[in-house]
């Protein structure tokens, strides 16, 4: 019985925050959206994630993909040659560096290709 007033105070303090959440309403501040609209601020989609890419952007991505794939094939050839010459027990730092660059280039190309799905 002696905890009841404390519980009522806590419920009264958190009720304005919990009621919209429990009712399924958005808790986004409408004043932020109104201020953005009044100032003419438009939220930008990050480059590469646009749903309607222009022909110039597609052409640029295509050229970058070709350039990265050329570099990727060169690195893979160097990596294969380095592994064959070093033997099964020795791995140089240059080979690890090349393998990391192969991974990075592959991810970059893959991300570019997936961005327009």
Short summary:
The protein has 117 residues and is mainly alpha-helical. The chain has 4 helices and no strands.
Q: What this model shows, in words?
A:
This protein has helices at residues 4-22, 30-39, 55-86, 93-114. With 117 residues, it is mainly alpha-helical. It folds into two domains: 4-39, no CATH class; 55-114. The protein is elongated, with a radius of gyration of 28 Å. The model has no long low-confidence stretch (mean pLDDT 75).
Average pLDDT for all residues: 75
In whole angstroms, the N-to-C terminal distance is 61 Å
Task: Report the radius of gyration as a whole number of Å.
Answer: 28 Å
Largest sheet: none
Which range does the strand content fall in? under 5%
Q: Which ranges are low-confidence, i.e. pLDDT below 50, for 5 or more consecutive residues? A: none
**SS-derived structural category:** mainly alpha
Choose one word for the global shape: elongated
Query: Count of helical segments?
Result: 4
Count of discrete structural domains: 2
Topology pattern, helix = H, strand = E: HHHH
């Amino acid at each position: 019985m002696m905890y009841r007033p404390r519980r009522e105070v806590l419920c009264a303090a958190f009720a304005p925050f919990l009621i919209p959440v429990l009712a399924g309403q958005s808790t986004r501040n409408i004043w932020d959206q109104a201020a953005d609209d009044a100032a003419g601020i438009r939220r930008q989609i990050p480059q590469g994630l646009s749903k309607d890419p222009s022909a110039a952007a597609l052409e640029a991505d295509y050229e970058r993909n070709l350039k990265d794939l050329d570099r990727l094939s060169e690195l893979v050839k160097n990596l294969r040659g380095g592994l064959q010459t070093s033997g099964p027990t020795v791995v140089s730092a240059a080979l690890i560096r090349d393998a990391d660059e192969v991974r990075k280039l592959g991810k970059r190309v893959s991300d570019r290709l997936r961005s327009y799905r």
